[in-house]
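User: Can you model how zinc ion sits in this protein?
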Amino acid sequence: MEHMIQPSCNLCPWWFRILECYPRYNKTMIHEIFPVGPLRCNCSIIGDESTREAMVIDPGDDIDDVLALLRKHNLQVKQIVITHAHIDHVGGAMKLRAATGAPILLNQNDYTLLKMLDVQAAWVGMAAPGAVEIDQSINTGDTVKAGEHAASVLHTPGHTEGSICLYFPAEKTLIAGDTLFAGSIGRTDLPGGSMQKIMQSLHGSVLALPDETVVVPGHGPLTTIGEERQSNPFLVRR
Ligand SMILES: [Zn+2]
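Assistant: Here's the modeled complex, given as structure tokens:
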């Protein structure tokens, strides 16, 4: 589409008019995805190239690596978002908060699970990270932001009671936590898990997203909603 500078902006000087009227193309979102900790949880850094503001999603471990990447991109963390309270996703959150001053966000239905981090550590043979304090609960209808890049919070219980996914509509990207994987779905046999709820979350919220949505699962390779709708053995309706 060809852009025309609108001649109707009479109140602003011409240079401002150009800035205001120029179509706003999607600026590239900085998105670093890298596995952290012994369980290789996919941690995401989302950054805004113009404001240099960032959010970190699921800093389960290896916080020195997270901080190095933030420095590399010259980003300042404004929010630490946790998809669910399993140790491999939340274990490094307090260390990152101490280093950046950013608040930690988690759905309140996972607060019980968060109090069991030492038990979880024993399950997986990790060192207990100590208590994690949550600054704010997030739920469906809330928005989390890194500068101009905004994600809708989707409460998707099933893997845990407080599991959430984050959907960036402009970037057509879903951070799925452990709700959806390439070719699989989150396990439901741990405390707070429910097969019935995860199926409701997947069919009701996740699969309502467009096929071209890129899915960043909590572990393993990326996929798309279309790919999973077509071939994920847990989701294909026969
Ligand atoms: Zn998990």
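A couple of observations from the model: The pocket of zinc ion is lined by residues 84, 86, 159, 178 (CB under 6 Å). Helices lie at 14-21, 63-72, 87-90, 93-100, 111-114, 117-124, 195-204, 225-231.
User: Helpful, thanks.
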